[in-house]
Amino acid sequence: MPPPPKILSGTVISAGLMAKAVKVRTTRPVYDSFLRKHYTRQKIHHVSDPNSSLRTGDVVRIAAIKPRGNNDGIRHVVTDILAPWGPPVEKRPPIPTFEQIAEKVFTKNHAKSERRLARKAEARTAGDAKSSKQRHADLAGGLGAEVVDAEERVVLEKEEANQ
């Protein structure tokens, strides 16, 4: 069983500029042993806001999640609004729960796998005996046909040299 997500709280500093995402500033206390002083460190997180229900100035609670993509900087999701700024929470779109987000991701991935299986079955029934390079050359409008022919010539020359 995975560990529970790390829960943080912070203030929304930028909302409405990115699609389904906001910037949240979190602070944490730090002690410097050399200076013997306590001070606060600030960090800015990109947070997923699927329904665009947050406004700049809201104090929110966020939880860590697994990154969705290779270059996706969003590693947190909003769990609830602690102190709204501006319109009340009741007049905003609801914040989805973890279960709702997981269900949405599951249905999206399931539909994707169904489409993939359908494409593979269609390719098998079509009886295409073309290689993947030839299919790519056909998709590119014949631009890669010369490359395929050159590679086939190299293979044939190697076979003749081995005999």
Describe this structure in words.
There is one protein chain. With 163 residues, the chain is α+β, with helices and mostly antiparallel strands. Helix content is 34%, strand content 31%. It has three helices and five strands, in the order E-E-E-E-E-H-H-H. The chain has helices at 98-126, 132-139, 145-162; strands at 7-18, 21-32, 37-48, 59-64, 76-83. A hairpin with a 4-residue loop joins strand 2 (21-32) and strand 3 (37-48). The protein is elongated and about 80 Å long. The model has no long low-confidence stretch (mean pLDDT 82).
Low-confidence stretches: none
Q: Whole-number radius of gyration?
A: 27 Å
Cross-sheet strand order for the largest sheet? 1-2-3-5-4
Helix-strand pattern = EEEEEHHH
End-to-end distance: 59 Å
User: Number of DSSP helices?
Assistant: 3
The counted number of beta strands is: 5
Coarse shape: elongated
Largest sheet: 5 strands, mixed, barrel
Overall mean pLDDT score? Answer: 82
Short précis:
With 163 residues, the chain is an alpha+beta fold.
What characteristics describe this protein?
elongated; 31% strand; 5-stranded mixed β-barrel; 163 residues; alpha+beta; 3 helices
Layout: helices, strands, pairs:
Layout lengths: L6 E12 L2 E12 L4 E12 L10 E6 L11 E8 L14 H29 L5 H8 L5 H18 L1
Parallel strand pairs: 3-5
Antiparallel strand pairs: 1-2, 1-4, 2-3, 4-5
